[in-house]
Specification:
This protein has about 80 residues and is of the alpha+beta class. It is built from two helices and seven strands.
Length: about 80
């Protein structure tokens, strides 16, 4: 028996912020990944979130323009409004 496995293609979305930075937990709520701060905290502590291709467990991590946050096979490109 042969099993064929296909990796799902990663989606990419742009997220526009109006400030110099946004905290990681706030970003997860802003983009709709987490409904509450507690849920965002759980995702971060469980190692589900990657920032610039590295697992990030610091919920207060400052996310700035140019960073990439990966969640559930979606890459969010952070950009400033300016």
């Amino acid at each position: 028996m042969k099993i064929k496995v296909k990796a799902a293609k990663r989606k990419s979305e742009d997220v526009i912020i109006k400030t110099d930075f946004i905290r990681l937990d706030s970003l997860l709520k802003f983009i709709g990944v987490a409904e509450t701060g507690g849920q965002a905290k759980a995702f971060i502590q469980d190692g589900i979130i990657k920032v610039n291709a590295e697992i990030c467990t610091a919920r207060g991590k400052k996310i700035r323009s140019g960073d990439t946050v990966s969640v559930f096979s979606v890459d969010y490109q952070i950009k400033n409004e300016n």
